[in-house]
Amino acid sequence: MFENLYDELKQSIRDGNYEKVKEIISIDKDLLNKVSALGSNLRMAARYNQYEICKLLIENGIDIDLVGGVSHDSAIVAATFSGNFDIVRLLMQNGAKLDVSNTRNNPLFVAISGRNVEIAKYLIDAGIDIYATYKIGEIENCDACEWAKKWGTKDVYDYLIEKETADAKLFEVTASTSFESLCKIVKDTKDLYNAGERIICTAKDRRQLIEANAKGVSFSLVQ
């Protein structure tokens, strides 16, 4: 029926055939981290909501952050896309990386666009970088908060605003415009200041600049 053992493994994962997956891995453990057009075996298990198989693969030492395939995303992104909180939590408990290098691999963005509030809040509490920004369409600096606003995910938007308001982080602003021009945008706070040749702002100031869609502006966290 199957051309090779790997094809049988993939089908067994999709079907949720725990015993067959366990058997195949015991025969050839090199298949564990093999990647197909559907991505890693763990990604497939997460995408098809196969919690016990995800657990089995992890226990056998699969690379939890392995990406590949057509979608080129990881298991945690697939689990988030499927809205499976239990698998997301399982992956996080086993050290899954929260990749924010682009929107496709950012599980928080996936949770927001899927309107999965429970997973989004869990990822935020787990420490995902809520300040990662991307140029998306006409939005110069689209972070998680702007993304939540764009998708109308109000519960997540409010939760992010609450986190930002309580955050003491400072950001260095790189801008193609003058300090005075930035001050005209940041009207409600005096926290935006010019430190020598550096412009520094709070999370609140940063939010105002992003919401104004200030052009030629980028932010980096002050360590």
From TrEMBL:
Transmembrane segments: none annotated. SMART domains: ANK. It comes from Treponema saccharophilum DSM 2985. Coiled coil: none annotated. It comes from the Bacteria. The keyword rRNA-binding does not apply. Keywords: ANK repeat. ANK repeats lie at residues 71-103. This is Ankyrin.
